[in-house]
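Researcher: Structure prediction, please.
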Amino acid sequence: MRTLSTRVALGALALGLAVTSTACASSDDAGSDGTTTITVMGIPPTTKAAARQAYLDQVAAFEQANPKIKIETTDAAFDPTAYATQLAGGNAPSMLLVALTEPAGLIARRQVADLTTAAEELTNFKQFDPRVLDNLRDSAGKLYGIPTSSYALGLVYNRKLFIQAGLDPARPPTTWDELAAAAKQITDRTGVPGFAEMTVRNGGGWRLTAGTYSRGGAMQVQQGEKFAATVDNPQAVAHLTQLQRMRWQDKSMGTNQLLGYDDVNSGFAAGKFGMIISDPGYYASYLNQYKGDPANFGAGAYPQAGGNATLIGGQAAMVNPKASAAQRAAALKWVDFYYLRPQYEPTAAAERARSNKESGIPVGVPTVALFNTEVQQRIAEAVKPYVTVDQANFAPFLTGTASLQYKPEPPVEAQKLYAALDTTVQAVLTRQDADPAAELAAAQKTATTIVEQAQR
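Model: Predicted structure follows.
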């Protein structure tokens, strides 16, 4: 789920859009004149003229550098149902840009191509952080996608409230027990709710999933080529139980528990909550949309309770198995040029940082980097002249997230699953006598129906 963004490296810049290429040309490697045509998704709509033109400028630059490749643009987005139909009819795109909820299912259903060998031709393939590739591999280790952007959930906290409560803003909580203690201390000493959680519009299920990961659990598990819902698990029960104690015993979460994305984020920016779960990419909205004070913004790693993991999101490029060899190669060249280059090439990174700074986009907000520490250091040095944020305020996120595993959102109907779990989280936070185990047992029935129906 996401209206947000993030990953571990400095100067991470929102990169781009979706890639696809037509597979209608069957298995021919190129046209009669030796030109390979691919269709790329993601061009901005006509209502965003400047962004659209900037995208087309990149297409022109790519074609000039690769005269035997022609790119056709489309604003179509990936739709799992439409893709399955197109694939069966032989007219599906050859390259897809998909959310990280999709790869596991596409790989299990054999609806995407094995890119293990082709990916090795990417300029900096050997410098990828292995963790960002793990969720794009099958059980045998074969690679089926290339990450293009990614984010990780962490802890966002109000540095001013930390100081007022006698907490060290340079040392935010790293475990859920520490978070609970800090939330109570903030509430007791400042009168401001120490922690706020989303519970509506799929936010409750999304956050519960992340909390379950941090305790070593999972909301879905793969069984053969399909997935099964496992929302009724001990780790989810433990997470809900801790939230229940914070709400009713510690009284550190306030009284309004029907909060959505905008409620939590705008409230945090206004100083109404001490801590929330988010990712550093929220900082741009915090600053520009919600008018938060930059000095008060702190970011730490996602709190843990035995799972050593955080939920990640983002996008990855994947290829239709019917795409020709030439189309596969051309599509990967485009991915490398447009999506990856600004993340490993200092000159391209500096230019993107300069452009973002001129546009008022924060520069220097950490994201989960696609490439290793050596590449990150080169990029950090290149964008340093354009950095607009106090990086010390984000340091706990960088250092803490570096040691965590990255776990993607559930692969089957994640949003429907989250919606079903919203009521579970709401029950625990609005009814003092709610039983977390009983609520999850009831949710398991709904989740099982959702997941099974989606895979028939």
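Model: The first strand starts at residue 36 and ends at 41.
Researcher: Thanks, that helps.
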